[in-house]
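Hey everyone, long-time lurker, first post.

I ran two proteins through the pipeline my lab uses and got sequence/structure pairs for each. Pasting them in order. The first:
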Amino acid sequence: MVNKKSIHGEWSSRFAYILAATGSAVGLGNIWKFPYITGENGGGAFVLVYLACVLAIGIPIMIAETMMGRRGRQSPINTLATLSTEAGANKYWHYLGWMGVTAGVLILSYYSVIAGWANAYVFKAIFGGFSADAVEVKATFDEFIASPMQLVFWHTLFMIATMSVVMRGVNGGLEKAVQLLMPTLLALLVLLVGYAMTTGEAYFQGLSFLFSPDFSEIDSDAVLTAMGHAFFTLGLGMGAIMVYGSYLPSNVSIAKTSLYIAGADTIVALLAGIAIFPLVFANGLEPGSGPGLIFQTLPIAFGNMTGGWLFGILFFVLLVFAALTSSISLIEPVVAWLVENKGFTRSKASVVSGLVTWALGVSVALSFNVWSDFTIFNKTIFNFLDYLTANLMLPIGGFCIAVFSTWVMHDKHVREELALPEQQYILWRYLASYVAPAAVFLVFLHVLGVV
């Protein structure tokens, strides 16, 4: 390889990379999405399927994607072009980079809208506090998402915050943004789990729902959802891990850091479930109530707590920042490409990519209210983009990453980057070259009705 250092900079240390990549993984996917899709898919059995997807598919592909990023040291699109040339492979592999970058933009367009909800709830906590009445809380939430002006306003604020961080670069923006926020969020989640333990019987009911498997609830759609969420929450197949890997110092172990990141991400998701489901049952709410779950359960909990208004403010503030550490990784790949290929300054690249994503996000915000009757394949714009990215683009991207890293790249180059002991390398290669691609392929065949 000619270019062994990224022109965009490098993480200052292994710990900085772990924090940044964990920040990319830990966010709304863990605290907002994981609890409600678990509720929609029957609880404990879905959790087991999800964990199996993380172990057998997610971690091997994360290792592969990080390795490709560090090998290429460029944006995902240019990395795929460079690695394809190095391997003597078809030049069209660089379209895999395009798909990942596109998926990141599409995800951020609706991710920013949901993050805007959290931002709005910070101010609801400051100025109005939270009600302990479930009906009132639901009415407040329904009234909020029915307002296009409010959703667009909060979405706009969040996108401005995202681009402000990305403009500052790898060390001055991305790295500094995660150094304090993620550990603090974890501490607050632990406190919320502690509060959930005071709900008595509901606490054990919530744990039972989360950890007692009923496989009659699992079908091909649930498996596809679990696999898609493993990609979504780990940030796989969307270029984020690849571009973060391109900033990784050469002396850092890719496999070890990937295990740390996946472990931290999974712990946060489980803590969110342990905190939220007891509150669901204690207040007579439905665990499968959809995307609004966290905005209809936590406010009730805060309304019941002594000093809950303060805890609510802190929680939703840190939820916004957790979302921010993920959003900056989603937009970073396209910003890097604009700098590399179009000669843009980082500031200009951030503004251009941010405006495009913001405009798409406006359509997502409107899909909750004035455009709610407009559907694509019988799905609202929000539901369509969520399904397209999490259940199709990310798994397909992960499948192609697994194939490229093990069947296209030269084995010598892969070994150089991973520097694993022989037995560990053989295990990773087996999972990445056979298990992960086969699992993705079989699930798709089943969903299509072929098997």
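...and the second, right after it:
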Amino acid sequence: MNYPNGIKKELTTKNITYKNRGMTLEEDLNQTNQYYIDNDIAYIYKKPTPIKVVKAEYNKNGYRVIKEAYYSEPSTTDYNGIYKGCYIDYEAKETKNKSYFPLANIHEHQIKHIRHIDKEKGICFLIIRFTTLNKTYLLPSKYFLDYIDNNKKSSIPLSYIDEYGYLIKEKYVKRVDYLEIVDKVWRLS
């Protein structure tokens, strides 16, 4: 390629990167939740992971920098908040698998937490994104718990999620508008 100042530059493809081309599920959910907050629709937040700082030092700019920390307790689910007077709690997961969701992605303490929320009649669900299929589902806790209680498998087949879950259509501003489905499933409209 010839530039106006006479410099010649050869075009190469080695400088092109496709890293971080699409948003992750967490980024999409954070953007959607911010839209809900900004428009007084719902107040749903990502829960911080509880950590215990063991060692911190000050850098040359006077800012404190964590040098050593550990998780102080197991986290529960990723998001919680309030919508139309109802408590909402959900876990968000991504998988590259095309035909099933591995249950190894959900820890036992998270399942216990989901059971408690479900028992207390909170709105609880999983949001599962199949990244290679570009499909995102909302699976109500009722069907998630029913599956793990009645099957000895290490994964949930996509066919089950297709049957009992709800496909979330991707949108521009509300990337993962899951409240549209919450309104229908839990009859909140």
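Reply from user beta_strand_b:
Welcome! Quick read of the second one: The first strand starts at residue 43 and ends at 46. The chain has one domain: 25-48+74-185.
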